[in-house]
Amino acid sequence: MRRCSPWRRGGAMRMRTRRKKKLRLSFVESSKLTTVKSSVQRKLKQLQRIIPGCLEMDMENLFPRVANYILLLEEKVNVLKNLSTLYGV
Question: Which biological process terms from the Gene Ontology are attached to this UniProt entry (predicted)?
């Protein structure tokens, strides 16, 4: 009768622990992924509240609207700077 080496005898046990670790890792990764998704969704909702007229807007239309709003705010700052230098404030 042929004897198994110690490496072969413990092989099945090692495989089971690897699978368990892999399952645990995939669970941790998926929970991190859901945390990231919820974080992104929360930040998008905040952005929708900040930008006027964007409360029920989808992401596809939200980002160009935000970019335009940022440009508008920059132009307002430039106008106010020019007015302050003109009137010496």
Answer: regulation of DNA-templated transcription
